[in-house]
């Protein structure tokens, strides 16, 4: 099958979080199974752009409202990522340093989507599936079905994968002219609670909708930032497919970003070496259990409770535990986490920023990875942690519930708790410290977690089944 993924992120081209990881891996594994899977994404000013060679594939001109723009589609020459990668260059809109966070993100991603369908409309053939990811690309199913100009594509099946329903891309009705002229009878598909809601529109118009875990799909029916009724209504076309992890990038035996490679047989030596250098780098006492957090510092990840929870845990454990944080996000959380640094030298450190290589060193060197997320559609961090023999400490929600068991259960290997609260985190830290002292059990958990298969092959087949089910 020919599958075209449309996404705002794709690792290693541009990544802000888990969406990038998934779109960098899923097409590669689809191709390994004999399909023809491609990715199209915006051309940002990233290192990848300057370090690789591209051919021009297409040049076009189109508009959002009365703003006309030229665009160019370029294709990476060598196919080194394991799939054809196409970048959309829209001068002045997409060619920026960051992926998100500009005042005109609505215009940027609308222009991107319109350029993409304009390009596909010029293909001599049609793809078997257009696979959209999150709200930045969720208007495509509506546009190809109901915009007059793109009628030729109306019967191309579309799939929308929801990686995160918290962000929906809301825009006011004054921006409705960004959408190419559409059948006025279909205007209701755009509307949700008095705004144009691209995610809601995508859920209504895509032929199938997938979420990145089963439990998240269930949760969306009663907690989805205003779309609960829609998920209940559309449940018949929704499927939960758990993300995999890319073993070519995330494997402690072959990871070039860590100094000492290890496998389940050598996990103790390997992790000890990684921990030693990590603790030296961040001036932490390597004898203590090391609990880490990696991620966006936002409410969804419950990063706001980290300062108080760490404070409480350090007092309660009388300094017999260490914390290391890697993340960036809301300024007040960054500030609070930085403030803590001076108070607990040797027990606590933080790196504010985004650093891919450091994240690998931390997964390898840590003993426990904390994820108190309020919302976690799938979560990749806990799966990376497990692959690196690091015990996950997770709130019982979404994909965390689907991938981590509690060590108190028979053959369990992680720590689960119910509330994103200081109390639950402190109690879990107590459990972690006790687990760290029981070296035999810790070793069993490490070996067991490392042997769990989270590879993409299984999930790829489930996506193919979804595509097959909507073949015209
Ligand atoms: N400061 C930093 N430095 C280096 N690396 C950092 C970093 N902050 C985050 N990362 C990395 O970004 C990724 C985060 O992925 P997650 O899946 O856990 O969350 P995210 O909310 O971004 O993804 C959303 O989409 C994914 C994919 O579907 C879902 O798993 C998830 O639940 C959903 O919220 C990991 O690779 C992590 O190592």
UniProtKB/TrEMBL annotation:
Keywords: Glycogen biosynthesis, Glycosyltransferase, Transferase. It catalyses: [(1->4)-alpha-D-glucosyl](n) + ADP-alpha-D-glucose = [(1->4)-alpha-D-glucosyl](n+1) + ADP + H(+). The keyword Lipoprotein does not apply. CDD domains: GT5_Glycogen_synthase_DULL1-like (cd03791). ADP-alpha-D-glucose binds at residue 15. The keyword Transferase applies. GO terms for biological process: glycogen biosynthetic process. Pathway: Glycan biosynthesis; glycogen biosynthesis. Residues 281-413 form the Glycosyl transferase family domain. One of its GO terms (molecular function) is alpha-1,4-glucan glucosyltransferase (ADP-glucose donor) activity. SUPFAM superfamilies: UDP-Glycosyltransferase/glycogen phosphorylase. Its EC number is 2.4.1.21. It is an enzyme of class 2 (transferase). Signal peptide: none annotated. Synthesizes alpha-1,4-glucan chains using ADP-glucose. HAMAP family: Glycogen_synth (MF_00484). Belongs to the glycosyltransferase 1 family. Bacterial/plant glycogen synthase subfamily. This is Glycogen synthase. It comes from Deminuibacter soli.
């Amino acid at each position: 099958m020919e599958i075209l993924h449309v996404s705002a992120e794709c690792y290693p081209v541009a990544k802000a979080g888990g969406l990038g990881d998934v779109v960098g891996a899923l097409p590669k594994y689809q191709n390994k199974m004999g399909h023809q899977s491609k990715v199209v994404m915006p051309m940002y000013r990233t290192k990848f752009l300057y370090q690789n060679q591209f051919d021009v594939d297409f040049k076009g001109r189109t508009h959002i409202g009365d703003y006309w723009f030229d665009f160019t589609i370029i294709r990476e020459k060598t196919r080194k990522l394991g799939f054809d990668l196409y970048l959309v260059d829209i001068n002045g809109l997409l060619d920026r340093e960051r992926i998100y966070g500009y005042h005109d993100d609505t215009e940027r991603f609308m222009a991107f989507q319109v350029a993409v369908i304009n390009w596909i409309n010029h293909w001599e053939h049609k793809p078997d599936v257009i696979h959209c990811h999150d709200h930045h690309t969720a208007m495509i199913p509506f546009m190809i079905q109901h915009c007059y100009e793109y009628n030729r594509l109306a019967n191309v099946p579309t799939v929308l994968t929801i990686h995160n329903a918290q962000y929906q891309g809301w825009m006011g009705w004054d921006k409705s002219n960004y959408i190419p002229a559409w059948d006025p009878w279909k205007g209701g598909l755009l509307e949700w609670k008095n705004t144009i809601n691209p995610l809601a529109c995508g859920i209504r118009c895509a032929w199938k909708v997938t979420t990145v875990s089963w439990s998240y799909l269930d949760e969306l029916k009663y907690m989805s930032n205003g779309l609960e009724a829609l998920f209940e209504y559309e449940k018949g076309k929704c499927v939960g497919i758990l993300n995999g992890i890319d073993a070519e990038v995330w494997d402690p035996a072959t990871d070039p970003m860590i100094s000492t490679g290890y496998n389940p047989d050598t996990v103790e030596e390997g992790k000890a070496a990684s921990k030693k250098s990590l603790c030296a780098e961040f001036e932490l006492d390597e004898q203590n259990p090391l609990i880490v957090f990696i991620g966006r510092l936002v409410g969804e990840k419950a990063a706001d409770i980290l300062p108080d929870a760490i404070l409480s845990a350090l007092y309660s454990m009388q300094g017999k535990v260490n914390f290391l944080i890697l993340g960036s996000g809301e300024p007040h959380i960054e500030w609070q986490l930085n403030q803590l640094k001076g108070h607990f030298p040797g027990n606590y450190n933080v790196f504010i920023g985004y650093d891919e290589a450091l994240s690998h060193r931390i997964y390898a060197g840590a003993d426990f990875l904390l994820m108190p997320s309020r919302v976690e559609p799938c979560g990749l961090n806990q799966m990376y942690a497990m692959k690196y023999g690091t015990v996950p400490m997770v709130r019982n929600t979404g994909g965390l519930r689907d991938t981590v068991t509690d060590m108190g259960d028979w053959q369990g290997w992680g720590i689960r708790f119910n509330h994103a609260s200081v109390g639950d985190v402190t109690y879990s830290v107590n459990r972690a410290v006790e687990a760290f002292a029981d070296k035999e059990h810790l070793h069993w958990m490490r070996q067991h977690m490392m042997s769990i298969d989270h590879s993409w092959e299984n999930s790829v087949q489930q996506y193919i089944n979804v595509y097959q089910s909507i073949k015209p």
